[in-house]
Design brief:
heterodimer; A: alpha+beta; Jelly Rolls; four-stranded antiparallel β-sheet; 8 strands; 20% strand; globular; B: mainly beta; nine-stranded antiparallel β-sheet; seven-stranded antiparallel β-sheet; 2 helices; 52% strand
């Protein structure tokens, strides 16, 4: 049976068929129960994760115990704590599973080796990294200057099915607003578009 | 006389999907990168291979192409293909399918159903012919060329037949239309029969021995499944079948000499165009086709 990661390499990254087994067989899998932590604050993050099934979240907890969600990673997304992973610093973030989740686990060595074997992997890896930066830049811009409504609309465009899978307070945390403000935004939108 | 630069043996085969067991000559072969045989930028050769009967047709699922043409030459077995423009058909033994992917197409190829159920010998060439920059984003199209439609030239003294898929042989024009000067022909030689060819010296020229074995300019014997890269030092050369009948794919093309940026099934001129292709593919602009 071809795994989701194998199909991702084949159908999205467009890795050449002769290189596929060299890449797809080099990674390990991990199964997580809902709520299980993949990374805690203070640990050094050694891995990147590709979500085959389920949902991961990257977040921090401030001095007052409030959670701030940086990123969600549903199926076919990558997630890592890039500061810790690349610079080897103790992580300031947590990664946990919001659903029963299956991930492919790989490290920077895999990325380096895969990039040498497959030019397609190398190009695509750079593309998703640049795309990630593009999204972060847009997110910062929205957080600084946009209305909560605009931020919410951007969220549902980026994560179309996530509002059905996570509690409202997590959406609010990602948007940097209170759950009450999110309710007002949603009410306002439903009055504009009754459907 | 145009001399032999190198004889390239077939590399270890690998599977494309589960239906094509291919030796890659271009761009993986020794000295055969995308530039050396420009405008021929990819050559996969499924040497004769027996596939046992299978209920579920083997093949390659949905995949995109942009920026070039794919040419499939069927020697043994039959392939059914479908694409995102609603087109499809069967490539039978002796037929050629010339698909201009150009601005982009999704397609899939499988062993044709009845061939798959019976099993049998399978032997094919798939070639990618690069498109000049100005045609890379033109409309996709097909040329389905049945064997009967391929122009044939009978060699003197019963030496054999030249099937002119594209280009020209002794004033006889080939069947397929091309976007740049390309000669593509099957030379079918009787035992001992020979044929002479003449292409401009700067045309990149190569031969794939599909059946039998040959001598080029009376020199060293080249066995089945080997590729001969010819020098760009002269125009004329000859091939001769030794031992038994031979079938040789003759390729010669005017190099485009344009920059090549490639990402798997996308072949463009710049990195920006490759990123654009990746984004267009990711956002569904290549259309839709069920696996």
């Amino acid at each position: 049976m071809e795994s989701t990661f194998y199909n991702y390499l084949k159908k999205k990254v467009l890795v050449k068929s002769e290189h596929l087994p060299l890449l797809a067989d080099e990674v390990s899998k991990r199964v997580l129960s809902k709520g299980e932590l993949l990374l805690s604050e203070g640990q050094v993050c050694k891995n990147m994760f590709f979500v085959e099934k389920g949902l991961l979240r990257l977040y921090s907890i401030d001095e007052d115990g409030r959670e701030h969600i940086i990123q969600f990673a549903p199926e076919n997304w990558f997630l890592s704590e890039r500061d810790s992973l690349y610079f080897g610093t103790p992580s300031g973030f947590f990664i946990d599973a919001l659903e029963d989740t299956e991930v492919v686990v790989f490290d920077q060595e895999f990325v380096d080796r895969a990039s040498e074997i497959s030019p397609e992997y190398r190009t695509y890896n750079e593309y998703i990294l640049q795309n990630h930066i593009r999204h972060m830049q847009k997110r910062i811009n929205l957080l600084i200057g946009a209305t909560a409504e605009k931020r919410y609309l951007d969220f549902i465009k980026l994560y179309p099915d996530l509002t059905m899978r996570i509690p409202q307070w997590m959406v609010a945390s990602y948007l940097g607003i209170t759950p009450e403000s999110l309710s007002r935004v949603r009410r306002g939108l439903s009055q504009k578009n009754p459907e | 006389m145009r001399t032999v630069e190198i004889i390239v043996p077939p590399r270890e085969p690998h599977f494309v999907g589960d239906g094509f067991r291919v030796h890659n000559f271009i761009p993986g072969g020794y000295r055969l990168d995308m530039k050396r045989m420009d405008p021929f930028i990819m050559l996969d050769y499924n040497s004769r291979h027996y596939f046992p009967p299978s209920e579920k047709p083997r093949g390659v699922g949905v995949h995109p192409h942009r920026g070039f043409e794919t040419v499939t030459v069927a020697y043994k077995g039959r392939v059914a293909h479908y694409d995102s423009s609603g087109g499809g058909g069967v490539i039978d033994e002796g037929d050629v399918q010339w698909m201009t992917a150009a601005s982009g197409i999704l397609h899939k190829e499988y062993h044709e159903e009845s061939f798959s159920k019976e099993g049998g010998d399978f032997q094919m060439i798939q070639l990618w012919v690069n498109l000049p920059a100005k045609y890379k984003m033109s409309e996709p199209k097909y040329q389905a060329i049945s064997n009967g439609e391929i122009t044939k030239y009978a060699l003197p003294d019963g030496a054999g037949t030249i099937e002119i898929i594209a280009g020209e042989y002794r004033g006889v024009k080939g069947t397929a239309s091309t976007f740049s000067p390309v000669h593509m022909m099957n030379a079918k030689l009787e035992k001992g029969g020979s044929a002479e060819f003449s292409f401009p010296a700067h045309f990149n020229t190569g031969l794939l021995v599909v059946e039998g074995s040959i001598k080029v300019n009376g020199g060293e014997e080249v066995p089945t499944d080997h590729f001969v890269l010819l020098e760009n030092n002269d125009t004329d050369f000859s091939i001769q079948a030794v031992g038994e009948n031979a079938l040789v794919m003759v390729l010669s093309g005017d190099p485009l000499n344009e920059p090549i940026a490639a990402h798997g099934p996308f072949v463009m001129n710049s990195r920006e165009e490759i990123i654009e292709a990746i984004e267009d593919f990711n956002t569904g602009k290549f259309g839709h086709l069920e696996d």
